[in-house]
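Exercise 7. Given the encoded structure of a 157-residue chain, write a plausible sequence.
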């Protein structure tokens, strides 16, 4: 299974919004430049994320995009399901008629366990977790983010 560029770029863009939450709205141009994403493609991605109420836009000279909810309330799963659709390891999990052996298939149980495990991991990682991991992995002082997360009850230990 491989994520499309839409899912990868969308997650990177949402991370960028989380990383810059304290600076206010972030322009598509800025996100595209920092994350090396084509601007027009990012506009398409943001259209889907906005329809799903994961982000909101602010008009004007200082406008751009913001998260619609706290970073701790948006998971990797939330983002990828909007952009990629439901997780599907095998067609037999969503359509019983695809396989004649669906009711007695041993591998179907494996695919179901894999799907559940992937969903659980994606649901357990929030944008706030991603920002904290970024700071930690890059030895960056995360005081500003810790203060923000503390004020919004977002710190996970």
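Solution.
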């Amino acid at each position: 299974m491989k994520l499309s560029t839409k899912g990868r770029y969308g997650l990177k863009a949402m991370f960028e919004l989380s990383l810059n939450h304290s600076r206010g709205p972030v322009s598509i141009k800025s996100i595209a430049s920092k994350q090396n994403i084509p601007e027009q493609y990012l506009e398409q991605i943001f259209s889907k994320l906005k329809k799903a109420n994961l982000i909101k836009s602010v008009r004007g000279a200082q406008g751009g995009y913001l998260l619609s909810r706290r970073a701790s309330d948006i998971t990797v799963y939330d983002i990828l399901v909007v952009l990629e659709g439901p997780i599907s390891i095998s067609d037999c999990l969503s359509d019983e008629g695809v396989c004649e052996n669906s009711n007695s298939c041993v591998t179907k149980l494996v695919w179901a366990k894999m799907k559940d495990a992937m969903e659980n991991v994606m649901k357990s990682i929030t944008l706030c977790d991603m920002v904290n991991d970024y700071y930690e992995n890059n030895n960056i002082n995360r005081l500003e983010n810790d203060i923000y997360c503390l004020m919004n009850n977002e710190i996970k230990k």
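Remark. The chain has eight helices and two strands. Students should compare their own answers with the one above.
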